[in-house]
Recover the amino acids of this structure.
């Protein structure tokens, strides 16, 4: 743990999947 990029990627994927 320690990669903000990964968190951002996961957040974007979640947002896209939720749409």
């Amino acid at each position: 743990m320690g990669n903000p990029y990964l968190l951002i990627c996961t957040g974007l994927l979640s947002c896209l999947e939720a749409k």
Q: What stands out?
A: The mean pLDDT is 72. The helical segments are 4-18. The first helix runs from residue 4 to 18.
